[in-house]
Design goal:
It is built from six helices and seven strands; from the N terminus they run βαβαβαβαβαββα. It has about 180 residues and is α/β, with parallel strands linked by helices.
């Protein structure tokens, strides 16, 4: 069954990566998805400046920035008093997807962690999955972010990885929020 077409043109995206070349590649892929509003920077301090002055629907953040870790920047975003920005969808990108880094990003409140380099198709699949997946946000003293317990949601690429995963994909829930609203218009 074909997926409905997604309109991402109204999204406002922040790309934070230390490497100018990789920021340009990600921005080019996003423009290929018809996303028109892309802001990019190379440091967490520059990202914080943008975050305090603008709202974003999606943030793509490198795991290791020159001035702080991506997990620390995710934690900063989740603790902002500015709504709906504190509930923005966040994908952390890393060349080194080690268990500790993945755990740190997840524990900070990231929605997903993707290994760099990622193909435009994989990036689009993950963005589309986030747009179509309803995950409630949890607010505790020690954690603010998407519920990490979700067992009835299909993986972004449609391929289950573990033997205990279901053999057939179920239907994904629809995410509520700015990304979902923009994606279906």
């Amino acid at each position: 069954m074909a997926q409905p077409r997604m309109n991402l043109s109204k999204l406002n995206v922040l790309v934070v990566d230390r490497n100018h070349y990789y920021r340009a590649l990600i921005s080019q892929a996003l423009r290929g998805f018809e996303i028109k509003h892309i802001t990019s920077c190379e440091t967490a301090s520059a990202a914080k400046e943008y975050l305090t002055n603008s709202d974003f629907d999606l943030c793509l953040i490198e795991a290791e920035l020159p001035d702080m870790s991506g997990a620390d920047l995710v934690r900063f975003i989740r603790r902002l008093k500015k709504e709906p920005l504190r509930f923005v969808l966040i994908i952390v990108l890393s060349s080194y997807a080690q268990a500790g880094m993945v755990s740190a990003a997840r524990d900070a409140g990231a929605n997903l962690v993707l290994k760099k380099p990622t193909s435009p198709q994989a990036l689009f699949d993950h963005i589309a999955w986030l747009a179509r997946t309803k995950r409630p946000y949890i607010e505790l003293d020690s954690y603010i972010g998407p519920d990490r317990k979700f067992h009835d949601i299909d993986p972004p690429d449609g391929h289950y990885k573990r033997a205990k995963d279901p053999s057939e994909a179920g239907s994904a829930n629809v995410r509520s929020g700015a990304l979902e609203e923009s994606a279906t218009q």
